[in-house]
Amino acid sequence: MVRCVALNSETLNKRLPTRQTATSSNSSGKTEARRELICDKYDSELGRKTIRYSWNMFSRIIEKLEIIYNVRPFNQQSVQSLVEMHLLVGAFCPRSIVELGAGTRSSTIALATAAAGFPRCEILSIDINPGCFSAFASKYFPELAFAPVNDVQMNIAELAHDNPIRVLPGPILVLLDAHDDDIPGVKVFDTIRDHVFPLPVQQLIAVHDCTVLPSDANVNLPPRHVRVQHISGRTVVGYGEVVPLVNWMNENLVDFCRPGDELSRLGFRADNSSLIYFFLP
After folding, report:
1. pTM of the predicted structure, to 2 decimals
2. With bands split at pLDDT 50, 70 and 90, how would you rate the model's confidence at 11?
């Protein structure tokens, strides 16, 4: 039996100051400066201790997920992705978290363990077949503390008719982990643009399964993957929804951060990073 560390990292997160980095705007009101939340929050001795603890905890969680699903290596999330999600929640301090695409519940674990450090924070987890997270957590991870998770069985396209996100209290962190044609014929970005992006300004959007490369990088793309260039000069590789997403970012002058870059500057690995995040303008 794989044992997860009993102490939860929200205990460490509570001791860390949250330093806000100001954003600048151009004459049209568009956000220009990046707010690197992870560097701002964890650039200290205690912050690095929190990162090391998170890495240790999620290494053990991944080992346990390999046993649960009998998949080795576990191919739905990496340790680094879960660490990045966990740290991002701790740095942003959301009142509500929306998980679009729950899958094996590995990302739910990362979000809910971090959110446990914020007593009023709740998670809305939307998936075509989410299962019951509380039962899953009680069975396999009874030693960990989790924030409340509300599972909603829903095709993401149904947000056009029944949208529980708009009534959530802010600040809101949205994790986009749903992809084009996961459900045949469903294109993710149109729904996200029309029914998630109309949230109040300065809400945080995190997007999983994005690889960021230099503009001149020459790589062979995996099946179903595409590439698109961001106005910053960086190339983003991901599933089909990445092209209209990045085009929207370019049109609205929205920059993004890559947690792997921030972790690298703090002295940690960044080679397996597949998360980006940005603030709604």
Report:
1. 0.87
2. very low
